[in-house]
Amino acid sequence: MSRVIVLFSVIFALLPGMIVFLASFSAGNSLAFPPREFTLHWYGVILGDPEFSSALLMSVMLAGVTSVVATAIALLAALAISRYRTPTTVLIEAFLLSPMVVPHVVIGIGILQIYIIYGLRADLMTLTTGHLIVTIPFALRLLLASIAGLDRRVEMAAASLGAPPFTVFRSVVLPQMKMGIAGALVAAFILSFDDVSLTIFLVQPGYTTIPILLFNQAENNPGPAIHAASVILLLASWIAIFLIDRLMGFERLAFASRK
Amino acid sequence: MYGVTETADGSPPHLELRGVSKTLGGRTVLDHVDLEVAKGDLLGLLGPSGSGKTTMLNIIGGFLSPDSGTVRIAGQDIVGLQPHRRDIGITFQGYALFPHLTVFDNVAFGLKQRGAPKPDIKSRVAEMLALLGLSGYETRLPRALSGGEQQRVALARALVVRPRLMLLDEPLANLDAALRHRVRFEIREVLRRTQVTSIFVTHDQDEAFALCDRVAVLNQGRIQQIGTPADLILEPASAFVAGFIGSPNMLTGRTTSYDEDSQRATVDINGFTHAVNCRTRVAPGTPLTIFVRPEEVTISPATSGGGPFQVKDWVYLGSGREMWVDGPAPLRVRLPNDAQGYQRGERVTLSWRPERAHAFPADAESRATADHDTAQVWR
Amino acid sequence: MSGAAASGNEAARATSAGARPSGHRVRMTRWLIVFGLLAPALLLYATVYLGGMAIIGLASFGLGPDAESGATLVNYREVFASAHIQAVVLRTLRVSAITVIACLVLGFPVARYITSPDARWRSFVVMAVLSPLMVSAIGRVFGWIALFGPGSWVAAQTMHFFGTRATGLLYTEAGVVIGLTNILLPFMVLSIAASRANLDESLLKAAASLGATPSAVFWQVELPLNLPGILGGVLIVFSLSITNFATAALLGGSGRDVVAYEIYSNILTYHQPGTGTALAILLLVCSVAIMMLAIWVGRRADAMQAPRVET
After folding, report:
1. Nearest one of A118, A126, A104 to A209, comparing CA atoms
2. Which helix (H) or strand (E) holds B187?
3. Neighboring chains of B (3 or more beta-carbon pairs < 8 A)
């Protein structure tokens, strides 16, 4: 019996993605499933749509910048927290990880109010800043785990051989953290790319991301091209999962995202 | 080759395995194992890792089914019987105490499953805890106990239901050396007091010898020999047993002559000849593997002209002196601490009582014992 | 680890400095370095994150830059008094409760499977069931819409069988539950699986050898030891589902108005920042409290498997 449930759960988890994927090739005009004919027509439509392509560009840039900056900031913080464990740093760690337990909508509204007060408009910087708040906790978690797995004695050996702290960091610590850093980059990228609940409060017409675009479209009347658009969005996710699995094993990331 | 199986006093065995075989993942883990244990006996199951001891335990306990063969307890065939109906007490490596239950609830668990009335449970648990020196521990949780204490709770839990058989899986493995000696003694005492038939699985030969009336030596799924510790030391049935028990010297030589009546062979070890005990009839020229324990080798100064062996070095081991001697073959010799000393480089002669050196034809099985750490590689 | 790390690091620094380290100066430099490393993160958080939430907090009490009067509880009173908001909250709780149950029913067998030693399809199941953690929810929403939205085969069947409006399951609370379960199942699975990893096979064998029937082994040993994981999973899923925005908004239709959506519409659409902010603060407090509880439960579960002392 429990095997049946497991099977059902697997199908259930994969179902919507598969349907979107299949429906994107459908020639039929409605949002229907199962599809009747197969075509790549809608991909052409969507990629040609200026609104879509500018949103795509925005999404990619936003996610890219966010992931790099988030990983960098998280790396510095992770080093400080793991190497100088005091009650203060433990508190700071909890603080920096806290956005994971706070509802994104609340964070989004808060950031929106700040921007309103300072008269900031939606642009790459403001959106990035918002995204940083929700991506840094994840990156921090991953990097802390990565640091925790390092053998301190290698660093001690390097120091005993005369290497100053920064050199030890550069030539011993950093290379060993490559996987963790890469994982953090990918995770931060995909989190930023997919985000809706926070971004929706920060975007303005003309400055929007793919998920928000899809969100708005769904509320109004979505055309059949929406499936192609969704698949393009999902593509990023699938690539991210593949990369993460290669880098550190998908399971490790999953368990790191436990609250 | 499969060693003699017999019960101590000839009465029908309490536990009986016949022809038990098991293959796991393509590997034959147990190969036609026959085993008999008399009621009240403490049998040790000794063997290196991978010899099949744990699998045998799992089969007797009911967590695995044998591919072939029978397992009987007091005449009743139990293959096919679910573990919870077998009435076998088991202590696991790691103790497997229920972390969410107190000591009392842990020990009472089996009694509760059997539906014993509350006052009965209370008194029997109290009695068992007292037997194991755990009175007063009733409300403690497993995580607050030391390793030795957890071991005793595990034992109490298994024994309180008065099982018809006890299986102990490496009970001393997780304890440090000093603790092991004490707990070993306690376990033996408790098992004797409760008179329960027990099988004690271990890879540690000292443990097996100290705790058990008889020991079954297991290797690669087969029982090599069953006997008292004395039997195993003095009359090993196979090269594996000879090599596994203690850490004997292992020598290779060639048969020069053989006397069937006395089961003596004269062997030539790189020019050094000596008599050894050999139960198999061998023709002259047959290569032999000889096992002689360091304690059995006598050493004496060479007569003028030089002896075949030369003293290399020695160490003090606390329990005696171990000398390393080079010559036709390298040998370790055990001497008491206060025995006569020798100079490094001094030439000596060695000897041993023939019946204390065991020789076996040097076939594949003997060579397999090279896996076990008997050869000295100190050059 | 901290002790060894600290001393190891200190030793490293001392040796590499080459000079005789004076305690005071070493500590000062250390604090400077720590501060420097943490500064970007802390700065960012303080301004945007804390600042933002502070403003919401203030606004909910009627304070802040565009405030007319002084501190007031009118927003909160309105939240509690409004029948509309009460309905919204009730809906949110209802949907969340059902989602939790669904996640539990589906999640427990899955967690059991992936932690059992002889699971042949283990990594595939793990990837599949946990994929919603990383795969965009929005991207898959249209899958649901296509599956049982108007015009779909499922909708046609339901209309056929139940004769209801041709919207099928979509745009109902049921649709939201399905969507939420899909997204939140991984969290339940992870929580239970993590606590199961601590479950030793030998415990189950021990119970059986002591005479416990398979059913007794489950109820008396397996389930109690899994309880922290189950509890933690329930709390996490509940917290995430009461704060959910996107899925409810897209799949809900008439049932879309959950607390998060109410906040969104209050603040962005209807420009009623008052009730919106008050609701946001209340949601924040509730969800954080539940999460903290979940974390505490998780810690207690780990403590149960504390290492033994060797004496």
Report:
1. A126
2. helix B177-194
3. C
Outline which parts of chain C fall under CATH 1.10.3720.10.
Answer: 76-304
The torsion angles phi and psi of A111, rounded to 5 degrees, stand at: -65, -40
Which position has the token pair 């992931």? A67
Contact C55 A114 (CB under 8 A): yes
Residue A230: predicted pLDDT: 86
CATH homologous superfamily of C76-304 equals MetI-like (1.10.3720.10)
Any domain includes A21? no
**Of A13, A31, A77, which is closest to C129 when you measure between CB atoms?**
A13
Assess C79–A contact: CB distance below 8 Å, yes or no.
no
| A26 lies in some domain | no
- By the 8 A CB rule, do C49 and A99 touch? yes
State the residue range of the domain holding A65: 36-256
Beta bridge partners of C120: none
Q: In terms of CA atoms, which chain C residue is nearest residue A187?
A: C134
Name chain B contacts of C310, Cβ cutoff 8 Å.
Answer: 146-147, 175-176, 179
Whole-angstrom Cα distance, residue C282 to residue C266?
A: 15
**What residues of A are in contact with residue C37 (Cβ under 8 Å)?**
76-77, 79-80
Q: What is the pTM of this model?
A: 0.77
Predicted ipTM > 0.90: no
What structural domains does chain B harbor?
15-234 (3.40.50.300), 247-293+354-370 (2.40.50.100), 298-351 (2.40.50.140)
C62-121 pLDDT per residue, tens: 776 666 666 778 788 888 888 888 888 998 999 999 999 999 999 999 998 888 877 788
The pair of three-digit structure tokens given for residue A242, joined into one six-digit string: 């593949």
**Number of domains, chain A:** 1
Stretch 120-159 of chain B: residues touching chain C, C-beta under 8 Å: 142-143, 145-148, 150, 157-158
Whether A132 contacts A65, CB under 8 Å: no
Q: Do residue A9 and residue C129 have CB atoms under 8 angstroms apart?
A: yes
- Can you tell me the distance from the alpha carbon of B201 to that of B212, in angstroms, rounded to the nearest whole number? 10
Using one digit for the tens of pLDDT, what is the confidence trace for C201-255?
888 899 999 989 999 998 999 888 888 889 989 999 999 999 988 888 888 777 6
